[in-house]
Design brief:
The protein is α/β, with parallel strands linked by helices. Among the domains are: 124 residues, 3-Layer(aba) Sandwich (Rossmann fold); 132 residues, Response regulator (Rossmann fold, 3-Layer(aba) Sandwich), CATH 3.40.50.2300. The protein is built from 12 helices and 12 strands. Strand 9, helix 11 and strand 10 form a beta-alpha-beta unit. Helix 1 packs antiparallel against helix 2, helix 5 runs parallel beside helix 6 and helix 9 packs across helix 10. The radius of gyration is 33 Å and the shape is elongated.
Length: 369
């Protein structure tokens, strides 16, 4: 307690004594009144001093918070995770997981692999379907934060849109990891497929499928960076190595299988001598395959994902000749394992990319179930 505060308290006691004396006699002296006014003045000054000290304290807190905000998100989250989670048992850990979409077989495989790994490690998980909607995914991350999950994993709907998710998680001090589509923000960890290699593999297989040259078209998905990289990798390889193969058209199916069907019909009308269609995802490849078969054409199809429907059609030896395959099970399980390690304060790789591979008639039997 400051000397000023002690003085004020003492003065107040003296005044109270005088007041009580005056009350007993039925009158209050001028000296008592003056003393009372002086006490009020001193009290007000002391209160003003206390307020100034409080304001300084609050300003210091604000300044400290700003300084923390300028620290790298990764450092804040890693430190928080190490302090609060390293002693947690797995049974007390809860993960919040937002899947790109449940309408895509590929992401169903990812979710199943994650569920299996969670069960194996004994951790709880809350799964949500972003349904290819960035705003919906952001809302899901907000829900995870409200539920105080220990870590968040998202399969981003879009590169740019996912940055808001990261900012929210960073502010809450919850580590956020991304899978497949890379965010333009700074996530703790990102696992995915090396899409540049995947696109190049598609280009090489087109070269193999059209040894005499020919015309190819690409069904793209320009809203998702992964798919953009696949198309670009394919075109770069063909431009650099295959002068006799022309990419006559490419159109964005926007993740809509019906639109992929319409695009394929448009290709058939515009290019009656088309030789091959490369689709950057198996849903689009299936749409193309169905339309081509229905039209009785012999246009070859190459897909991307390695989903069971692709494997089944390749095994039949028809126009679906190959697929660039990913490892959704491996990546899904690795994400869960990495999230738990972060919570326990362990080090994990900042990024990890798994190379895709080709499934065709030569090795398709290895992938049939």
């Amino acid at each position: 307690m400051s000397l000023r505060k002690i003085g004020v308290i003492g003065l107040a006691l003296v005044i109270m004594t005088g007041v009580l004396s005056g009350c007993s006699g039925g009158t209050q002296t001028q000296d008592t009144k003056a003393g009372t006014e002086a006490a009020k003045t001193e009290a007000a000054k002391a209160a003003g001093t206390d307020k100034a000290e409080t304001d300084k304290t609050e300003a210091a807190k604000t300044e400290a918070a700003d300084a923390v905000g300028e620290t790298k998100a990764e450092e804040i989250i890693t430190e928080a995770a190490a302090q609060t989670g390293k002693d947690k048992e797995n049974k007390d850990i809860t993960l919040g997981i937002s899947i790109f979409t449940r309408t895509h077989v590929f992401y169903n495989r990812v979710e199943e692999a994650m569920e299996k790994k969670c069960e194996e490690l004994g951790v709880k998980a809350i799964f949500m379907d972003a349904d290819t909607d960035s705003e919906k995914q952001l809302s899901q991350v907000q829900d995870f934060i409200t539920q105080k999950v220990d870590a968040i994993i998202i399969c981003p709907v879009s590169t740019a849109g996912s940055n808001s998710c990261l900012e929210l998680a960073n502010k809450a001090g919850i580590p956020l990891l991304t899978a497949f589509t890379k965010s333009d923000g700074d996530s703790i960890c990102h696992f995915g497929t090396d899409e540049n290699v995947g696109g190049e593999l598609a280009g090489k297989y087109i070269e193999k499928a059209l040894p005499e040259g020919g015309k190819a078209a690409i069904i793209t998905y320009d809203d998702v960076e992964n798919c953009v990289l696949r198309a670009e990798g394919c075109k770069k390889y063909l431009e650099a190595n295959c002068e006799n193969i022309e990419v006559v058209d490419e159109q964005n199916y926007q993740g809509d299988a019906e639109k992929a069907s319409a695009i394929t019909q448009d290709f058939l009308l515009k290019y009656p001598d088309l030789d091959l269609i490369f689709a950057v995802g198996d849903p689009a490849a299936m749409s193309a395959y169905t339309i081509i078969n229905g039209a009785g054409k012999e246009i070859k199809v190459i897909g991307y994902d390695g989903n069971p429907e692709a494997v089944n059609e390749i095994a039949k030896g028809g126009i679906w000749i190959a697929d660039v395959a990913q490892d959704p099970e491996g990546i899904g399980q690795a994400m869960i394992d990495s999230a738990v390690k972060v919570i326990h304060g362990e080090e994990i790789p900042k990024e990890k990319y798994i190379e895709p591979y080709i499934i065709d008639s030569e090795n398709v039997s290895e992938f049939q179930k």
